[in-house]
Amino acid sequence: VQTLEDLLRAQRGLLPGQPEPAAPPALLTALHEGRRLRISYRTGGGDPTPRMILPLELQQIGTTMRIVAFCYLRNSQRTFYLDRITELALAEDGSSSDDMREAPPQPLAP
């Protein structure tokens, strides 16, 4: 680690020279603009559950990408693994955490 950027990347699990993780554009927009996302999240062995989240950080641990976010369903900070998110869309401005009737989310490519 030679620069501050290298240090910040190492904190996210990236080695110097390793490319930034590819993330859905809506997720990057939500992180940069402080916006909420509507997701469908599949827990281990469960059916997908619709959730409203406020992403706080995108992390990469080895080859695993995850989002640290505030979950309005659970009313607490949670970690969501990107490979378990089946749908993801930006929430409309002014929408409440209970309002899931907005434009349908787009499926994530496998």
Question: TL;DR of this structure?
Answer:
Helices cover 15% and strands 38% of the residues. The protein contains two helices and six strands, in the order ααββββββ.
Radius of gyration: 15 Å
Number of strands: 6
Strand content: 35-45%
Gap between N and C termini: 33 Å
How would you sum up the global shape? globular
In spatial order, strands of the major sheet run 4-3-2-1-5-6
* Series of H and E elements: HHEEEEEE
Number of helices: 2
Can you give the helix content as a percent range?
A: 10-25%
Largest β sheet strand count, sense and barrel closure: 6 strands, antiparallel
Low-confidence stretches: 95-104
Structural class by helix and strand composition: alpha+beta
Mean pLDDT equals 83
Mind explaining what this structure looks like?
The chain is of the alpha+beta class and 110 residues long. 15% of the residues lie in helices and 38% in strands. The chain contains 2 helices and 6 strands; from the N terminus they run H-H-E-E-E-E-E-E. It has helices spanning 4-11, 25-33; strands at 37-42, 48-61, 64-71, 76-81, 85-90, 106-107. The protein has a 6-stranded antiparallel β-sheet with strand order 4-3-2-1-5-6, with helices on one face. Strand 3 (64-71) and strand 4 form a beta hairpin. The longest helix has 9 residues, at 25-33. The radius of gyration is 15 Å and the shape is globular. Mean pLDDT is 83; it is low at 95-104.
